[in-house]
């Protein structure tokens, strides 16, 4: 409060008991008093020689000393603040330098990574080009091999056809008993059924073997019964990879038994065939189970593979060998329609 404290000596009036001068009245004394203000004022009273002035001076000196100390402290604080600021500035400069270094290092790393990526891309592109070239070369080689294989297969087929022609001629000349041989095949699509016509040799004569695929006929029972009533032999096919396909043949077998009757059925060739025998990994019906089912039905059993052509030709040959009625009526066509071979109207139908 030193700045706001003001000391003032009381004004000396006339000596004790002496009357005031005429000019100095009470109002004159009041006019000498300082005006009121917001400052905090300390008024010192005392008689002369009591050391009021010394006290006031001491107070002032103390205040001055305190002010000097405060100024020194402020200067020290300012110096410390300056030092701190310098330290902060230095630290900030160091941090900035470190940041710059890090940024430079990161930029260098990014550049290196980009260079590496570009090199890798180039290498990958080169490898892809090499692979493409190798694949093209392999494809060309494969095409050449396929062409060679096709040529070889064509040559083999021609040789086989020649051999088959020779065998047929020999068999026709040598055959002295009733036997059947497959000669050629043609297909016709009619009434949602596939008709496969196989020309066979029977007692040195030619007859046509009609094979009908009854796909979808189960939806039309009347058509199914008509096909069964006209059939001379039957092949019941299931998939070795599907037990359900074998179970679906049971009602068809019952319809065949009802339509043909037990007496006529004894003389009709029937084969239970398990197809897709090459897919052993997905097999659901063992061969023993299919054979046991065929024994219960009183028919013959064979497994085939249409994919690998396993037992396909043997199936039809075996079915013809089971034919007990060898008296197949043959009707010869006119010579103008034979074109070097004898054609007979179809009399043997396999459903």
Question: What features would you highlight for this structure?
Answer:
four-stranded mixed sheet; cell membrane; 351 residues; Rossmann fold; 17% strand; alpha/beta; three-stranded parallel sheet; 8 helices; 9 strands; P-loop_NTPase; elongated
- Strand line-up of the largest beta sheet: 3-4-5-9
Bin the strand percentage.
15-25%
Number of helices: 8
User: What is the makeup of the main sheet?
Assistant: 4 strands, mixed
Corresponding CATH architecture of the domain at 195-329? 3-Layer(aba) Sandwich
Distance from first to last alpha carbon: 130 Å
GO biological process, one term: signal transduction
GO cellular component, one term: plasma membrane
Pfam families: Ras (PF00071)
Membrane topology: Lipid-anchor
Architecture blueprint of SSEs:
Layout: E1 5-9, H1 26-32, E2 40-44, H2 52-174, E3 180-190, E4 193-202, E5 205-213, H3 221-230, E6 234-239, H4 243-247, H5 249-265, E7 270-275, H6 287-297, E8 300-303, H7 312-321, H8 335-338, E9 348-350
Parallel strand pairs: 1-2, 5-9, 6-7, 7-8
Antiparallel strand pairs: 3-4, 4-5
